[in-house]
# Entry
Amino acid sequence: MTGPTQPTPFLDLADQIDRLRDQLDVVWKTVLWGGRFVGGPEVRAFEAEFAEYCGVARCVGVGNGTDALELILAALGIGPGDEVIVPTNTFVATVEAVCAVGARPRFVDVLPGTLLIDPAGAQAAIGPRTAAIIAVHLFGQMADVDVLADMASRHGIALVEDASQAHGARFDGRRSGVVGTAATYSFYPGKNLGSFGDGGAVVSNDPALVCRIRKLADHGRSPDDRYVHDVSGRNSRLDSLQAAILRVKLGVLDEANAGRVTAMQGYRALLPDWCVPVAVDSRAEPVHHLAVVRVPDRAAVTAALDAAGIGWGLHYPIPCHLQPAFAEFAEAGLPVAEAAARHILSLPMFPTLNIDQIRRICDVIRGVAW
# Structure
């Protein structure tokens, strides 16, 4: 626990875990005594509970969020010769999944306010080889899935939602996976719903797609005969212990997200006018995985935060189309993302961040002189 004059971490996982210690102790004993460490009842129960939480028909747990994206694309038959539209402002995993199946990423710019995928840019990028659009729900806010889903339907392509930073977020009252073909989640420890290691999931209302993903993630194994492998798959399964931990944390996810919303409200009320939080679409209900702001002089602000013992992060200082790994796919400049990358800064954000800590963070920022 940190106080108003003590160092404030960028993310405080220890405090969150401590509040669930008794329940997590039971989880550990249950899994240990049950002896089912891969698959089993804990995984099945979490899949059912998370699907219900998201408002979709099916969920399959996988090894991590990157695998989840790759498995969706592979199950949709997307591969060499296909193009997949992705926003350049995202973590590289989104692009890695496209490249892993042999498809070509088509980078598009983002909206100036929310820094989420620009639907007009996505529309302009659609061509004869386009197989899918990946809508990345970044920083805890969902992209405009209504417009993107209509666009995908008109062009006969898939809409894949990367919801790795948006556990519990809504757009027009619906959570991710309800509108698109499928949605992916990462349960990396720092996520709104995080495990104690790597983990991920795919949610969808398409049972046939989920069945194909489950098969691919389990060595291509037939659902009717475990000794028959219908296709060449891979090993990407959610461990029982992680599933059991996620079940406990899912039970308090809405409460934790509410804490993040309150913290973001505090930032908006107390930050100086020149420190501008990322905008929120009027139809969106974000869960504020990150508290991203734009500042005129990032070096000056981060130096002041460092001196005060306040954590910070950058999400993301290099747009994907400018990353060396993806240089061959960069076709033109994407000015909105490029300009934002020079000024964005992520402030501390976690459910138990209190108003005294927020006030101190904002006071430190307010005191920065150019």
Summary: The longest strand covers residues 130-136. The chain has a mean pLDDT of 96. The CA atoms of residues 310 and 361 lie 7 Å apart. The domain at 16-250 is CATH 3.40.640.10 (Aspartate Aminotransferase; domain 2).
